[in-house]
Fold:
Amino acid sequence: MNTNKIKHIGVFTSGGDSPGMNSALYAIAKTAEATGIKVSGFRKGYEGLIDGDLVQFKSHELQKLTQKGGTILKTARSKRFLELEGRKKALQTLNANKIDALIAIGGDGTFKGLLTFSEICDIPFIGIPGTIDNDISGTDYTLGFDSAVNTAIENIDKIRDTAESHNRVFVIELMGRDSGYIAIHSGLVVGADAILIPESGRDFIYLLNKVKSYDSEDAFLIMVSEGDEIGAELLASKINEVNSSVDLRITRLGHVQRGGNPSALDRMLGIRFGVAAVEQLLNGNKNKMVGLLNNELYLTPFEEVVKQHQVNDELQKLLELFGK
Ligand code: F6P
Structure:
C-alpha cells in the first residue's frame, strides 16, 4: 500500500536523446507500479508540459523497448519553456492533471529549466542525467555516454581500414559539446595518433610537429572534440600548410553517435537511475539529480550538477603518456 502523498508522477525526456532513456522509463514505470503510483509521460520534453501532451504508460509496454535507442517519449529543446509564459502553462498542465511529482531525464539545460521552474512550482522534481556528452557533475557517467563511445569506436575502426589502405590522414570530429569525454575515451581505445579536447588546453603545435615528419606510409588518425577551439576545418588547413604531401580527409561522426541500441552499461544505468528516481521522490527528496559516483547512487542538488563535469586530470595525463 502506498501511504505516501505522491500518487501520480509525471516524467519526460528533454534535450538531446541518448541511448538508455527507454530503460530509465521502464524502471520508473515498474517502480511506481510496485508502490501503487500512476505514471504519465509528457511527450517532446518541456513542450509536452506546456501543451498538456501526455500519455499513460505501463511497465509491460516498455519492457521490450529497453533495447531501443532514442526515447519513446520523444524530446525537444524547448524555447517556449525559457519564457515565464511557457512555464506558467506547464504549471497549469501539472495542476490540471494532478501531478504530484516530476522526473526529468536530460542534460544540464534540462536541470537549469527545472531550477527556474521551481520558482513558481513547488512539487518535487528529481533529475536523471541523460546525455551522450558525460558533461554533468554529480555522476561518473551519464546515460548514453557509453553507447556513444561504443558507436564512435565501431565507426572509427572502419575509418582506420580505409585510412590504412590509402595511407591517409583523417581528422575525425566527435560530439560532446564543450566536453572532451567522447573524444578522449574513443581516441585512446582506437589508438589514435592525436586527440584534441577542450579541457587539455594543449597547443596543437605539438600535433603539427608530428605531422611535419609524417611519411605517408601509414594511416594517421586525429580525434577532435567538437568543442575544441581549433575545429576540424582549420586543423586540416594547418596540417596541409606544414606538410603539403598529406592526403587528408575530414569525417564528422555527427548524430550517428546518438543513435543505436544502448550498451549493457547504459541499459543497466537506466534501470538503476529510474528506480532510484522514484524511490528518492518517495523518500521526500526534491530538486536533486540521481547519479552514480564510484558505482554508488548519489543525489546532487541541481545547483551543483549544472557545473560542468570536465575530463579529469588522471585521464588528461594519459594524453601525455600515449603521446597524444
Ligand atoms: O548534447 C548532445 C549533443 O549531441 C551534443 O554532443 C551536440 O553538440 C548537440 O547535442 C547537437 O544538438 P542537436 O541534435 O540539437 O543538433
Remarks:
- DSSP finds twelve helices and eleven strands in the chain.
- The pocket of 6-O-phosphono-beta-D-fructofuranose is lined by residues 16, 77, 107, 131-133, 175-177, 226, 258 (CB under 6 Å).
- Residues 145-166 form the longest helix (22 residues).
